[in-house]
Amino acid sequence: MPIEWVLYDFVNDRGENEIAAWSRCLQKDQRAKLNAKLDMLARVGMVLQGGILAGPLPNDSGNATPIYKLKIRGNVQLRPMLCRGPIENNGEFTLLLGTIEVGNQLVPINAVSIAAEKREQILRDGHRRCPHERTS
Which of 10, 76, 122, 131 is surrounded by the fewest CB atoms within 10 Å? Predict the structure, then answer.
């Protein structure tokens, strides 16, 4: 296991970092919690304990996917969707989609499928991600 896992963000077809854009819309305390959890993820990777990293998650059809969600508690339950890799599975994570959870339901409801499609886009074109951009 690497000493530190590398974090990446999904980049759309216009070259925009969607994760950075999502996190800039969060309140300052939410961004601080997000950054703290991402720091933990970078330090310990898949060993992340305490129900903080959930997955692999099923898609809308109930089939397993390579998608995980990071659980960040607060007045708004942040649930960024991510995957291991997908280029190097044993040393990196890619944040794919910023989501929230309301009443045990992801918003958007098809977040896992959206994240899985974004992962596939990265596999087809490695330029669809960039090093993680930390927002404060």
Answer: 131
Residue 1 maps to a domain = no
Six token digits for residue 104? 């045990």
Domain of 105 in residue numbering reads as 6-130
Is-contact 47 58, C-beta < 8 A?
A: no
* Per-residue pLDDT tens digits for 96-122: 999 999 999 999 999 999 999 999 999
pLDDT tens for residues 19-70?
999 999 999 999 999 999 999 999 998 887 778 999 999 988 888 899 999 9
The encoded tokens of residue 121 equal: 């886009």
> How many domains does the structure of the chain reveal?
1
